[in-house]
Amino acid sequence: MNGSRADAVSRYLAWAKLHSYARFNLAVSGMVDYPLAELPVRIEDLEIGGTDSYGYKPLMEQLAAKAGVPEECVVYTLGTSMANYIALTALVRPGDEVLVERPTYDPLLTILDHIGAKVCRFERRAEKGFRLGLGELERRLTPETRLVVLCNLHNPSSALSDDATLRQTGEMAAKVGARVLVDEVYLESLFDRPWRSSFHLGPNFVVTSSLTKAYGLSGIRCGWILAQPELVQRMWQVVDFTYGSPVHPAELLAVIALDNLGRVRDRARALLETNRALLNEFLAGHPELDCEPSRFGTTVFPRLKTGLATDFVGMLRGQFETSVVPGEFFEQPQHFRIGLCGTTETLRGGLERMGAALEAFCKLTR
Ligand SMILES: Cc1ncc(COP(=O)(O)O)c(C=O)c1O
Q1: Which of 12, 106, 157, 212 to mutate to test the pocket of ligand 1 (most atoms within 8 A of CB)?
Q2: For the whole model, what pTM was predicted?
Q3: Quick one: DSSP state of residue 335?
Q4: Is the pLDDT of residue 2 over 80?
Q5: Percentage of the chain with pLDDT > 90?
Q6: Mean pLDDT value of segment 285-297
Q7: DSSP labels, 214-266
Q8: Which one of 33, 106, 155, 185 would you pick to mutate in the ligand 1 pocket, going by the greatest count of ligand atoms within 8 A of its CB?
């Protein structure tokens, strides 16, 4: 049995917070901040303290209505980060076998390490566009598997898993008595096609998400977990010893943001549409990179065909003022992640420099 690891750290988060900055920062995966001044916020609408210990009632109602679930299936959290921590802490005991996709968002592994779970992996294959492969999953499920963990959209590739695939995932997990945790933080950025949370696909689904990435509202930290009521009870007990009581001004701001989500969404959708066209033009013109055109989400995860991607990423940042996320943080060192959710000027500038860097790098490695 694995012991719990109090010293577990996410090398990725440390890098992202301290070392990812560059003039052209394409390492981000969340929409550029929505300006507070564009929300109808009046100081009279804010208050320091509230009275609802388990989530401000109007906010809980809004979150439940948004997801189309009863309120007793919702836990309010500070971002998807805390949603993942609370959900995993409530679902997993030390030594439990947990099956996690590869590549994945590194902090999910860190939390499981911290809990002392026995982590097993199933592959999403680059040559298959990182799509969720049921065969891969089936091969790795065992009678000991307690939980399957995946992201939809997938981080880093933004691959979308459809309802049929996810439903089958849930059924396969249910056969061995396992639950499925789906981190849906990037699903919120699917502005151009209707979708419903995978929570609706079966009783063994638990979902985490937030308003942070898709809308440029990261600072409000409005996140949530969707789970069956008996699990929700357990999760609120974890909340008791993590954030304790909610940050009431943030709850009030979240209600205002949700009341005005249409305009927030319009701005994000327009920016992503422009940026996606720019990025796809760039990808089409750079055969040195192996990458399907971007269709969904805020990131792509190309593979550099020749030379070491780590060297290329270093050169891009050191000599061309542009940062991307090195693939090593996703256990895929020959790839790197490009974010398309900054301002259009940042993306355009970054891609111009990436083009120049690729030319210089390919000359060196020829
Ligand atoms: C898959 C995934 N989940 C959760 C998070 C954290 O989200 P939040 O900002 O809502 O805490 C990230 C951030 O990059 C992410 O990529």
Answers
A1: 212
A2: 0.97
A3: B
A4: no
A5: 92
A6: 97
A7: HHT-GGG-EEEEE--HHHHHHHHHHHHTTT-S--HHHHHHHHHHHHTHHHHHH
A8: 185
